[in-house]
Automatic annotation (TrEMBL), chain A:
Entry's localization field: Cell membrane
Entry keyword set: Cell membrane, Membrane, Transmembrane, Transmembrane helix, Transport
Gene Ontology, cellular component aspect: plasma membrane
Broad class of the protein's primary localization: membrane
UniProt keyword Membrane present: yes
Name recorded for this polypeptide: Sugar ABC transporter permease
Domain ABC transmembrane type-1 span(s) in chain numbering: 68-259
Organism: Actinotalea fermentans
Coiled coil start-end: none
From TrEMBL, chain B:
Species of origin: Actinotalea fermentans
Keyword set includes Cell membrane: yes
InterPro entries named in the record: ABC_transporter_permease, MetI-like, MetI-like_sf
Protein name, as recorded: Sugar ABC transporter permease
PANTHER family assigned: ABC TRANSPORTER PERMEASE PROTEIN, DIACETYLCHITOBIOSE UPTAKE SYSTEM PERMEASE PROTEIN NGCF
Single biological process term from Gene Ontology: transmembrane transport
Keywords tagged on the record: Cell membrane, Membrane, Transmembrane, Transmembrane helix, Transport
Topology within the bilayer: Multi-pass membrane protein
TrEMBL record, chain C:
GO BP annotations, alphabetical order: maltodextrin transmembrane transport; maltose transport
Lineage, top ranks: Bacteria, Bacillati, Actinomycetota, Actinomycetes, Micrococcales
Lipid metabolism as UniProt keyword: no
Name of the featured protein: Sugar ABC transporter substrate-binding protein
Endpoints of the signal sequence: none
Source domain of life: Bacteria
Region (Disordered): 13-36
Single GO MF descriptor: maltose binding
Organism of origin: Actinotalea fermentans
UniProt keywords, alphabetically: Signal, Transport
Low complexity composition-biased segments: 26-35
Length: 274, 321, 439
């Protein structure tokens, strides 16, 4: 493709500008975190003596270890279970195609546009009646349900496009549907599954509304919920808040930078497929 | 932000390769369908159960609660459509819905338009080193919690924050203000946080769509003597119909159902100027304990999202066929 | 699927079958009278308090030191967050001790423990009755009478703090005796290029309610305002004197006496500006006296909002720093014992004054620690006595109903700052919000 030099120059400038706008808030967060706790630094200004100890203080007051553990427990319950049951359903709807598959699919698709606020009030009373308020289960169980529309839709789209003859071949070898599912389809679905796993991981980690409504103890929340609680308590101490926010962001940022290629492709595909 | 995406588009454009004669294949499938029917339903059951219990049942309950006056503790009273009438009557609630629609300008239009423009200018060097680095950078807002975005930006917008610092540096100190505390700027300021979050995703989605367009189309257009503008409107834009529909859908839902950013940055203030339905539902239900009223607003919000998003899917599907 | 979900949900109207879950009115009478303390077994008291004020935690530390079997498990939030969470937390995660926001609905809905039995057992009912009045709520949610649902850590009072250095700079030797005189000092500060008043009014905090209520008491009658706050029949906030007071506040806004970013200023930022010398006056309460004495020793003065005419009536918000016990609390007796200890233990009373800056609760003749001459703590305690003599004590107008602060005062005061509402309309909007919950 022929691109004029002027266009390239304009494009590069725009891209750099966009990147600057994207990254500056992070830098401001970092610089502010180094100011003495309790002060109101003005804008982006390198402190006279950087207070690295703010990070230590924030780590202590936010009880980061507990928070990480809590988020980990929620993830470990939500992601595998969601993946598993969504794969079963996706396989059934996309590959086995029982009578009524279309209606079932439409019922799931309906949930794709659902704003969480639409169900949060009944969920609260449901969790209260189950005695699960203020426990991690109050986040885990609804999240699995809320992920089903997307996850089932995603896995079905994957299985619909899997060539029929793979199953034929397996069937000739005398494999049952179940064996075929485990030995043939699941291994072939790894790319789709891992992308879905990344998406579910991120959404769970960043889930805020359920955490804020259903769980009052930050130590039982997701990371985003814990960050909300941290802001609720320390929001008036800007440097400490910035340090705490950075600490809470750090795990996601690290995981993202390591797996960035997978993240980007999962998110792009996720948007298109959804 | 993109967790509640909708649409029926499939990313794949190539067709599934078909082997074997179509006739025998169709018959085999039919026979198998009957045999597998029971097993298939069994496999769907766990997902369906989770969906029914934690989504459909609460949805139905929201509808049911919305006809009652209930404080969550004592007996409820049937009030018919009163709660819905109140949404129209009370400026607080109707205002929150209008605010949400205004947010669409920032959450949706800005990222899509700016994303289109940027993607179009950089598509020529989409594989360069700079473009690859930009993928990582522009994605950062997508992976952090919206809460964090709210915290960062509240600080940037503060009267002694970076936004004012930059304005003063470029000689615009006169317009500097406490952006989130000003009646005229609070909603746009909050909206721009949403734009910041969505821009990277939209830009990269559109760019990915652009790289799939057949270069022969552009060459043909050039031979016909088309300028960059006509090229953009005649080739690029129509080819991106699906991607644009997706971007708009995702961001419109994010705007209408916004909660996290507002909760953190303004709590709806100043003077309810940034109050959105999500926050109002939360306040009504858990602070005022007007469960019925909160539920009616929740139902209205779900209906509005569907009303806005469904027509978009038509655009999406047409683009597909 | 949708149909089955509907069937599941449609069994009964919400709330019709959960009588069993209603918070029980646990009666201390059923407990052994000798158990009105924390015993000797290890006890963990769950407390939910407001962040940013060291008084409660200092008291907890002292109590833990005196009663080693007791530990406090403390959760802290900013007041606005705490207010929003209160109804939920009291039912579903019941604390033994909680800093209460406005309490009439919390009490009348049965979320708070009725403390009358404890009051009788500990002899709180022999204290000056006015101390406990604001914490009594009848079964319709009216305050002033009825069972006792909370206790104060101390009772605090609000007025005007000023930076003595800056005041001298604008020629203010003595606190103003009239509102007109106060206005002239504000103008002098403005002329001198200083920020006359930084006042928090951002986000969910309508801090202009502080000066507004002071002005209301200067123009009108503190008793009428109390009637409104206590939800007396037909009480209204839209009175001629209140309109005059709001107009006066508006004139301050229009004259530019407030910092121009007050609609985004939170409480901590106001304190920081004042302490750094970036505001001549602030409207605040004596809970900051101890802090200000520590941070700007000798440089802070205090006065009550001056009357319209010299010698005229004036008033001040004076309210207990209320703590309640959840109706479902695990350790109500120990929590009540702690509340009694605060008012009667010498160490605790010393902490209430030195850290809290306010007058402790308790019998009129109880121990009082010595306060340094010239400290702002001494000034606020003296002002408290003056208010008592004037009968000018009012509860806070933001405490009239559970939601009148968040949904009445805050948004409308922010609108007043932005010039989006006029004084009469402001009061009418607040009255409408008030009536929607008093009904």
């Amino acid at each position: 493709m022929i691109v004029s030099r002027r266009e390239t120059w304009l494009g590069r400038t725009m891209l750099i500008l966009l990147m600057a706008v994207t990254i500056l808030p992070f830098i401001s967060l970092f610089v502010t975190a180094l100011h003495p706790s309790g002060t109101y630094p003005s804008g982006l200004e390198w402190p006279e003596s950087p207070q690295w100890s703010n990070f230590v203080d924030a780590f202590k007051v936010a009880d980061m270890g507990t928070l990480l553990w809590s988020s980990f427990l929620i993830e470990i319950a939500v992601v595998p279970v969601s993946l598993f049951i969504a794969t079963l359903a996706g396989f059934a709807l996309g590959h086995l195609r029982p009578p009524g598959a279309r209606i079932i699919l439409v019922a799931f698709v309906l949930g794709l546009t659902l704003p969480r606020e639409g169900v949060i009030v009944p969920l609260y009373y449901q969790m209260r009646d189950l005695g699960l308020l203020n426990t991690r289960w109050a986040i885990i169980l609804p999240l699995i349900g809320l992920y089903m529309p997307f996850a089932v839709y995603w896995m079905r789209a994957h299985f619909v496009n899997m060539p029929e003859d793979i199953s034929e071949a397996a069937r000739i070898d005398g494999a049952s549907t179940w064996q075929m599912f485990w030995r043939v389809h699941v291994p072939l679905s790894m790319p789709a599954l891992s992308s879905l796993a990344i998406l579910l991981f991120l959404w769970t980690w960043n889930q805020f509304l359920l955490a804020v409504v259903l769980v009052s103890d930050p130590a039982q929340r997701t990371m985003a919920g814990a960050l909300g609680a941290f802001q609720g308590q320390w929001g008036t101490d800007i440097p400490l808040l910035c340090a705490g926010s950075l600490l809470i962001l750090a795990p996601t940022l690290i995981v993202f930078l390591v797996f960035q290629r997978q993240f980007v492709s999962a998110l792009l595909q996720g948007s298109l497929k959804g | 932000m993109n967790q509640r995406l909708t649409g029926r588009a499939s990313a794949r454009r190539e067709d599934t390769p078909a082997l074997g004669s179509p006739e025998s294949r169709r018959r085999a499938i039919k026979a198998r369908r009957l045999r597998r029917g029971g097993l298939a339903l069994l496999l769907v059951a766990p997902a369906a159960l989770a969906y029914i219990v934690f989504v459909l049942r609460p949805m139905a309950q929201s509808i049911q609660f919305s006809f009652y006056e209930w404080n969550g503790v004592t007996e409820s009273t049937w009030v018919g459509l009163d709660n819905y009438a109140a949404i129209l009557r009370e400026p607080e609630m109707s205002g929150s819905i209008l605010n949400a629609f205004q947010l669409i300008i920032y959450f949706s239009f800005i990222p899509v338009l700016l994303g289109l423009f940027t993607a179009n200018t950089i598509r020529g060097f989409a594989t360069s080193r700079l473009a690859i680095v930009s993928r990582t950078v522009l994605f950062l807002p997508q992976i952090i919690p919206l809460v964090a975005a709210g915290i960062m930006w509240s600080w940037l917008y503060a009267s002694n924050g970076m936004v004012n610092q930059v304005l003063e540096a470029i000689g615009l100190g006169g317009v500097a203000r406490a952006w989130l505390g000003d009646f005229d700027t609070a909603l746009p300021a909050v909206g721009l946080i949403g734009a910041w979050v969505a821009l990277g995703l939209c830009m990269l989605l559109l760019l990915a769509g652009m790289t799939k367009i057949d270069p022969a189309l552009y060459e043909a257009a050039r031979i016909d003597g088309a300028g960059p503008w006509r090229e953009f409107f005649a080739i690029t834009l129509p080819s991106l119909r699906q991607e644009i529909a997706v971007c708009v859908t995702v961001t419109v839902i994010a705007a209408l159902a916004s909660f996290d950013i507002i909760y953190i940055s303004t709590q709806g203030g100043p003077g309810n100027r940034t109050l959105v339905p999500g926050l109002e539902i939360y306040r009504l239900a858990f602070f005022n304990r007007e469960i019925g009223q909160a539920s009616a607003l929740a139902v209205a919000l779900m209906a509005l999202v569907l009303l806005v998003v469904l027509p978009l899917q038509r655009l999406n599907r047409e683009g597909d066929s | 699927m949708v149909a089955s979900a509907l069937v599941l949900a449609a069994c009964s109207a919400p709330g019709s079958n959960n009588d069993a879950e209603e918070p029980e009115e646990s009666a201390p009478a059923t407990e052994d009278a000798s158990a009105l303390d924390c015993g000797t077994e290890p006890v963990t008291l769950k407390a939910y308090i407001e962040t940013g004020f060291p008084l409660a935690t200092e008291l907890f530390d002292e109590f833990e030191a005196q009663y080693p079997n007791v530990t406090f498990d403390v959760r802290e939030d900013q007041f606005a967050v705490l207010t929003q969470n209160a109804p939920r937390v009291l039912v579903d995660d019941p604390p033994d001790l909680m800093r209460l926001p406005q309490m009439s609905e919390l009490a009348s809905d049965g979320l708070l423990l009725d403390l009358d039995e404890y009051a009788a057992a500990f002899g709180w009912d022999t204290w000056p009755a006015s101390q406990l009045e604001q914490m009594r709520v009848d079964d319709e949610g009216r305050r002033g009478n009825g069972p006792l649902y909370a206790m104060g850590l101390n009772f605090s009072m609000t007025g005007v703090f000023y930076n003595k250095e800056l005041a001298a700079q604008i020629g203010m030797e003595e606190p103003p005796a009239t509102l007109a005189e106060f206005d002239s000092y504000l103008q002098a500060a403005k002329d001198a290029g200083l920020v006359p008043m930084a006042q928090f009014n951002g986000g969910a905090t309508g801090g202009l309610a502080f000066p507004l209520q002071g002005l209301m008491a200067s123009y009108g009658d503190a008793g009428e305002i109390n009637d409104w706050i206590y939800q007396q029949p037909d009480a209204t906030i839209v009175t001629d004197t209140n309109v005059q007071a709001t107009e006066h506040l508006q004139s301050w806004i229009e004259a530019g006496y407030f910092a121009d970013d007050i609609n985004s200023m939170d409480y901590a930022m106001m304190m920081s500006r004042f302490i750094e010398g970036n505001s001549v006056f602030i409207f605040n309460g004596d809970w900051e006296s101890g802090n200000l004495d520590a941070q700007m020793p000798g440089n802070v003065g205090f006065f009550l909002m001056p009357p319209v005419e010299e010698g005229g009536s004036f008033g001040a918000m004076s309210a207990p720093l209320t703590y309640g016990i959840s109706a479902n609390a695990a350790n109500p007796a120990c929590a009540a014992f702690f509340l009694d200890w605060i008012a009667t233990n010498d160490e605790a009373r010393t902490i209430a004054v030195e850290i809290g800056g306010s007058h402790p609760m308790g019998p009129a003749d109880a121990f009082m620690p010595a306060v340094a001459e010239g400290s702002v703590t001494a000034e606020t305690l003296a002002a408290g006595a003056a208010i008592g003599a004037q009968d000018g004590a009012m509860d806070f107008i933001a405490n009239a109903t559970g939601s009148v602060y968040a949904e009445g005062w805050t948004p409308n005061l922010q609108k007043l700052v932005a010039g989006e509402i006029d004084p009469t309309a402001l009061l009418e909007a607040v009255q409408a919000e008030y009536e929607s919950s008093v009904g």
